[in-house]
């Protein structure tokens, strides 16, 4: 079998990680604050990084908690808010780990269709007003959504804020890809427009520094963050101070800006290459090229069985994630391609193999 070309993992390839910058940041962290870097710290995270994040979002540090990755942040928020039987709105499709976490808590997961400009707010309002569903929270990935790559429009952000205030639910603005925009215009976060204390915002340094750093955070009303702090204290006393101190030095020095610029330039080129390859080798596929982030959603012709495509692709040494992993039902002809972890010259060969796999799965000659 040929070497595997993987469109499966949402992580940057090593060639676009600023290894030298990270090494220098680690040295500064141990030199400048050996006590804070090596000590336990507190459950809210490394104080200088917490303040840097607060300044970034224009909030008081009491509204920020820094965690071991954004998935830890998600888990804390779900634990503090979601009980068995509670209705929770998510996008259709949505991140597979979010689905697993919520279903593991016994939540009544309500999927609302995801359109190319974000969640269908008309359908959401009908769910709330006509069906009388009263969700505890709505989980939304507003920028370059995982798995679809779509971005929530400005008017839909306003509509969500209005609905959250009117019907009393929390908007969980899960935003790890916000800084990885390589085309189009940036949009203000819902957090920055929230006047009712309805938004809890999450992000991560895994996509802008490196995935192995495992540093994420939550921003929200101080009372809610204080409640989550108690959960964090009981879970791990404090998160990883070494990693957080390193991230602070990387951010405070401005190295993060250079790193983000490198990542954006590389991913923009990869999307261009991927789009051209799909148009050439899989012209019957439907997709929208994203303006940022790591992922592209691909819809194959009706009747194509993604399980069969997956089997054929495995035999040909190309990996992807089946669309059905991101849904409670449906999506049997869809898949997610992550272009972040492949180099440009792997993309053409990877899509060629994928096209062969699709033809084989459909019963046509490869």
Automatic annotation (TrEMBL):
<feature type="domain" description="Aminotransferase class I/classII large">
    <location>
        <begin position="3"/>
        <end position="354"/>
    </location>
</feature>
<dbReference type="InterPro" id="IPR015424">
    <property type="entry name" value="PyrdxlP-dep_Trfase"/>
</dbReference>
<dbReference type="Pfam" id="PF00155">
    <property type="entry name" value="Aminotran_1_2"/>
</dbReference>
<dbReference type="InterPro" id="IPR004839">
    <property type="entry name" value="Aminotransferase_I/II_large"/>
</dbReference>
<protein>
    <submittedName>
        <fullName>PLP-dependent aminotransferase family protein</fullName>
    </submittedName>
</protein>
<dbReference type="GO" id="GO:0008483">
    <property type="term" value="F:transaminase activity"/>
</dbReference>
<dbReference type="InterPro" id="IPR015421">
    <property type="entry name" value="PyrdxlP-dep_Trfase_major"/>
</dbReference>
<keyword id="KW-0808">Transferase</keyword>
<dbReference type="GO" id="GO:0030170">
    <property type="term" value="F:pyridoxal phosphate binding"/>
</dbReference>
<dbReference type="GO" id="GO:1901605">
    <property type="term" value="P:alpha-amino acid metabolic process"/>
</dbReference>
<keyword id="KW-0032">Aminotransferase</keyword>
<keyword id="KW-0663">Pyridoxal phosphate</keyword>
<dbReference type="InterPro" id="IPR050859">
    <property type="entry name" value="Class-I_PLP-dep_aminotransf"/>
</dbReference>
<dbReference type="InterPro" id="IPR015422">
    <property type="entry name" value="PyrdxlP-dep_Trfase_small"/>
</dbReference>
